[in-house]
Design brief:
four-stranded parallel sheet, 15 helices, six-stranded mixed sheet, 12 strands, single chain, 405 residues, alpha/beta
Length: 405
């Protein structure tokens, strides 16, 4: 790979941010010829950074003379498959831009496969110099499809053969082959690090439905962006739904749920025991476990935005454990954590019932505590009571619409 990169003319496949980053890093070190894309609106002379032509991809134009660097992220699987169908071979004829960087910088390759928690760990590790001095990282988003094979996920399929560490987020009992990578699928000297795909509904006993809310309606023209999937309406508060269905007004519902004895101490302690027991089972056999950390810290601070998206303290516990398993010591880690954002990607805070705060000993919560609640109109700071009235009004409106259907 190093020989091809150094001795052949380089063609970038892609003209977006990833391609620009790679070009700026190596334009003085490699012999770039031009770019190719499948998108006609991008084609033209000197359209890439005002320096390289962007051409239409032609199946046989690149054979032999050029070495192709895929400067893409989301479209990688489709473009890699396209090149394969046209007779090109990975590593011999084309390469992922991140693999190219690892080869050119003589660094190890770290492969991350999983969902949002591991993606946050991946991004956080990118701010740790002691890690980035040794590793170039590739993150592959875990797919929710049940029967994915490793071969279907081309970036994972190729990177697994050359990675030095494989960091994966375990999904308990998930049938996907990709989520159950075996030692035999990886290089003999590759280090495997299993990371807990923890969820923790301990603060929220009202979450009877751990999937998306059946009463979640939205504007037809709403953008399907990252914020969309994290709106407060996407998760069901079973108590509010039930009380709205019983004909209670939002104000009545607020009075009922705000009572500091709505949940009893006995049922909350039972709920918490089940949560920790489930978490312990889910983390069995993994290298990075956060159950003990949650158990020791959940009363001191809010560790989660909602039951599946961690806040800063928990996220960096993951990062510290990964660094520990790699035997990497970062002298400035405390300062890096101090400067790090509260979360890598924002979800809607899920307010905590007063009775839960009382019986679980969450002394940092009172009636004036304000949560960052993600509404369809943006982030709003809400107290628990404001949240209940807002959410109940939303469910009330949705049920009227559905009745009209």
């Amino acid at each position: 790979m190093l020989e091809q990169l150094q001795n052949k003319e380089i063609v970038l496949f892609g003209a977006g941010m990833r391609a620009h980053e790679f070009y700026e890093m190596y334009k003085d070190k490699l012999n770039f010829a031009f770019c190719v894309t499948n998108t006609s609106t991008e084609w033209g002379e000197k359209r890439f950074c005002g320096e390289l032509d962007i051409r239409q991809y032609q199946a046989q134009e690149l054979k032999g003379r050029y070495y192709v660097v895929l400067g893409v992220f989301i479209a990688f699987d489709n473009i890699a498959s396209q090149l394969e169908c046209d007779g090109y071979a990975m590593f011999e004829d084309f390469i992922d831009y991140r693999v190219a960087e690892a080869v050119l910088e003589d660094k190890k390759l770290a492969l991350f496969y999983g969902t949002c928690i591991l993606r946050d760990v991946y991004y956080s590790l990118g701010s740790v110099p002691a890690f980035t001095d040794q590793y170039v990282s590739i993150f592959v988003q875990g797919n929710i499809k049940e029967k994915d094979t490793i071969a279907e996920i081309r970036r994972l399929y190729y990177a697994k053969d050359i990675c030095d560490i494989y960091v994966y987020a375990n999904k308990l009992l998930h049938p996907s082959e990709a989520y159950n990578m075996q030692r035999k699928n990886l290089p003999a000297d590759c280090k495997m690090i299993g990371v807990s795909k923890a969820t923790f509904p301990g603060y929220w006993p009202q979450l009877h439905n751990m999937g998306y809310n059946a009463n979640w309606l939205f504007e037809v023209a709403a953008p399907f962006d990252n914020k969309f999937w994290h709106l407060m309406y996407s998760r069901e508060d079973a108590n509010i739904t039930r009380l709205v269905e019983e004909g209670k007004s939002p104000e009545e519902i607020c009075r009922i749920l705000s009572a500091d004895d709505y949940y009893s101490e006995k049922e909350l302690k039972k709920h918490l025991r089940i949560c920790f027991k489930t978490l312990k089972m889910a983390e069995k056999g993994l290298e990075v476990k956060v159950g003990d950390f949650i158990k020791s810290q959940y009363q001191a601070k809010m560790l989660w935005q909602d039951f599946t998206h961690p806040k800063k303290a928990l996220l960096w516990e993951y990062v510290k454990q990964v660094l520990g398993h790699l035997e990497i010591c970062e002298e400035a880690l405390d300062e890096i954590i101090k400067e790090a954002p509260e979360y890598i990607h924002r979800s809607s805070d899920m307010p905590i019932y007063p009775s839960v705060a009382k019986y679980l000993g969450l002394s940092w919560i009172d009636e004036n505590t304000r949560y960052e609640v993600m509404t369809c109109k943006g982030i709003r700071l809400m107290t628990f009571k404001e949240y209940v009235i807002h959410y109940a009004s939303y469910i009330q409106a949705v049920l009227k619409i559905r009745k009209g259907w």
